[in-house]
Amino acid sequence: MKAHVGPHHVLLLDLDGVLVDTRPVMESAWHAVQESHGIDVPFAEYERHLGRPFNDIMERLELTAVGGIHATYSQASVAAAQLARQFDGIAEVLHAFVAADWRLGIVTSKPLDRATPLLAQLGCPFATVRVPGGQGRGKPAPDPLLLALIDLGADPAHGTYVGDMAVDQEAAHRAGVSYIHAGWGYGCPGTPTPDIAQSPKDLLRLLDASHRSSTLVEGSVL
Ligand SMILES: [Mg+2]
After folding, report:
1. 181 alpha carbon – ligand 1 mean position (Å)
2. What's the half-sphere exposure (Cβ side, CA atoms, 13 Å) at 124?
3. Which of 22, 42, 74, 152 is most buried, judging by how many CB atoms fall within 10 Å of its CB?
4. What number does CATH give the domain 10-21+85-219?
5. How far is the CA of 164 from the centre of ligand 1 (A)?
6. Ligand 1 centroid, distance to 34 Cα (angstroms)
7. Sequence spans of domains, the chain
């Protein structure tokens, strides 16, 4: 398995619902929030907003006292961390991209302390990891994708973002990078309908094809 691509391509990836199935962790953490804070918002409602920074989700759910809720959620997430599972084949696919000279980066709304152990388990060299809380706005703003590209010294035209929620697609569009929807994730894509990878391995096929077409354009006399 090998993606035949050039040296300057950047693959930016979301974490939850793309690399790792953390849904059971999130569900468990949300139940802890419901119990500790007497909140009756169901997990399904929380889940609709995945991809956005936590505080943004709280605002959309019209919840206040966010500091305490976030502390409970973080603590319960750490306690349930063993429920997270890598999606089948994802580590193998990431290594194939690395072998084909792609540079990998992570753009996630998960805080760094909880993202790091999950990324370490994949055993891949991620050239940058962008999380909330630093410079810029969170997804669906383009900021974290643009910051990741700056980290790597890459143009948006050489970047592809793989996400699983409509907010991921919106962020990619606003950043000027290509988008591929991870069909194995948690959400539906927005409009216009993007390329959808049916499995992690499908990413190799989709990106191989898109590289060939861009090579043709670059090599053509227009
Ligand atoms: Mg996601």
Report:
1. 10
2. 28
3. 22
4. 3.40.50.1000
5. 5
6. 22
7. 10-21+85-219, 23-83
